[in-house]
Amino acid sequence: MPAPKKEKKDSFESSLKRLEQIVETLERGEVPLEEALSMYEEGIQLSKQCVEKLTRAELKLKKFLKEVDGTFKLQNDKAPE
Predict the structure, then answer these.
(1) Residue 72: φ, ψ to 5°
(2) What is the mean pLDDT of the chain?
(3) N- or C-end of the chain: fewer Cβ atoms within 10 A?
(4) Residue 39 CB neighbour total at 10 angstroms
């Protein structure tokens, strides 16, 4: 099964959608061994990409601190001197 056209060049959502398609196809067990191995390898790469994107997003969110009044401010990455 050829890979679908890329949406927004490797967005998290498109990577996750393709990974889900691979899992569904492999779970059906109807693909030849060589194709299954190729799809498995693609799935591993997509999984790594998704984890990296989630990790970067998490780090970006952790830079924001919630103030007592409910507002947010950007956390200073430098330690106080």
Answers:
(1) -115, 150
(2) 83
(3) C
(4) 19
For the whole model, what pTM was predicted?
0.67
Beta-ladder partners of 65 = 73
In percent, the amount of the chain with pLDDT more than 70 equals 74
The highest-level CATH class for domain 12-74 is: mainly alpha
Long-range interactions of 41-45: CB distance < 8 A, separation 24+? 42/3, 42/18, 43/19
- Residue 56's nearest CA partner among 6, 7, 12 is 12
Cα→Cα distances 21→45, 68, 72, Å: 14, 44, 38
* pLDDT tens-digit map of 16-46: 999 999 999 999 999 999 999 999 999 999 9
